[in-house]
């Protein structure tokens, strides 16, 4: 599903055939918002895919709640081409930025719920998820949800400001990512 969504993101990116040099330059300029929206959504979907993969590396069994959360998450991923197109075509409109922010916040909330359920149901895992590792994952996902949720009302004040606000996640993800690697390595050493 992740790969299909990534592929669908690229379908809107095209330059018409048969253009002269001036027309080509203009068409290339016109398509750049689609390219940037594609790159952004590719990074977002890839981050969620990586988190999904990391989470399910340790899962031995699933229950109804896990299945529902996974299906919801996959459904939200499958919808990403729509908010991506809105962002590419109408990136200056508050509604487009709000819809995109809402979509990412919803994906993050779903992944957050999945992480918490698996943490609190250790019998579903191959190994118990240590509390420090789980807490770090929860902080990381909660930060994603919070940043994109705050961007929704912010988009109606300043669409550009809301998009710039998304960058707050870069240092947060760097810190939680490094801490997560260290905590996972520590947990593996302790269990060995």
Looking at this protein, list some descriptive labels:
about 190 residues; mainly alpha
Account of the 3D structure:
With 192 residues, the protein is an all-alpha fold. The chain contains eight helices and no strands. The protein is elongated.
SSE layout:
Layout: H1 2-10, H2 21-56, H3 64-79, H4 81-90, H5 94-120, H6 131-157, H7 159-165, H8 169-191
Helix pairs in contact: 1-2, 2-4, 2-5, 3-5, 4-5, 5-6, 6-7, 6-8
Concise account of the structure shown:
With 192 residues, this protein is mainly α. It has 8 helices and no strands. The radius of gyration is 19 Å and the shape is elongated.
Low-confidence stretches: none
Gap between N and C termini, in Å? 35 Å
> So what's the oligomer here?
single chain
Tell me what portion of residues adopts beta-strand conformation: under 5%
Average pLDDT reading? 89
Largest beta-sheet characterization: none
Order of helices and strands: HHHHHHHH
Number of helices: 8
Strand pairing plus helix content: what structural class? mainly alpha
């Amino acid at each position: 599903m992740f790969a299909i969504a990534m592929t669908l993101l690229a379908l809107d990116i095209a330059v018409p055939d048969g253009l002269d040099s001036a027309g080509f330059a203009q068409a290339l300029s016109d398509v750049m918002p689609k390219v940037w929206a594609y790159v952004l959504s590719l990074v977002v979907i890839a981050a969620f895919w990586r988190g999904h993969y990391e989470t399910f590396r340790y899962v031995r069994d699933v229950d109804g709640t896990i299945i529902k959360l996974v299906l919801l998450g996959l459904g939200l991923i499958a919808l990403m081409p729509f908010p991506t197109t809105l962002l590419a075509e109408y990136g200056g409109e508050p509604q487009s930025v709000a819809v995109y922010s809402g979509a990412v916040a919803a994906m993050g909330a779903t992944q957050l719920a999945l992480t918490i359920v698996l943490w609190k149901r250790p019998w579903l895992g191959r190994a118990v998820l240590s509390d420090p590792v789980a807490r770090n994952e929860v902080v990381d996902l909660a930060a994603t949800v919070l940043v994109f949720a705050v961007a929704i009302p912010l988009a109606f004040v300043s669409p550009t400001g809301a998009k710039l606000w998304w960058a707050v996640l870069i240092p947060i993800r760097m810190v939680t990512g490094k801490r997560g690697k260290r905590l996972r390595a520590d947990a593996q050493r302790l269990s060995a």
